[in-house]
Amino acid sequence: MKDIEQARLSQEHHVEQLVHGGGPLGKVNTWLAIKVTNIVGTMWCAYAFAALALIAFPDAIRSGNLNVVVAWTAQTFLQLVLLSVILVGQRVQSVAVDNQAAATRVNTEVLLTLSSELHTITSRDQMQKLDAILECLASISVPSQAPPALS
Hints:
Elements (H helix, E strand, L loop, with lengths): L1 H9 L4 H6 L3 H17 L2 H13 L1 H6 L3 H74 L12
Helix pairs in contact: 4-6
């Protein structure tokens, strides 16, 4: 169980300190980055960005220039909308990975416990069998034979 506790403790670290530092400015940067990501990384934000991008769509079409339409699609619509959609997808994947890691951890702890219990049971059974063999050997009387006579 000590190994399990050590593994549990080794997983508890603060990644944000590695990215922004542990000082007050680092904490503010981390807080702000998380807030912005949580707002921009929603489907509602993707819908809002799509609506915003569509404001310029009629002008792009009226221009009659294929390059303007391609530029509007790539630089305006895709960049704005895909940013939010990708963040949402990453969040969904992150939750799935976290759930899988938690399940794997629980399964590993259960297997470690079962393995330890099996080892204890096996050792105890082996000791009982050895004791039975020793008792059996002790109860067998070996006839003493007289040494052969020298002629």
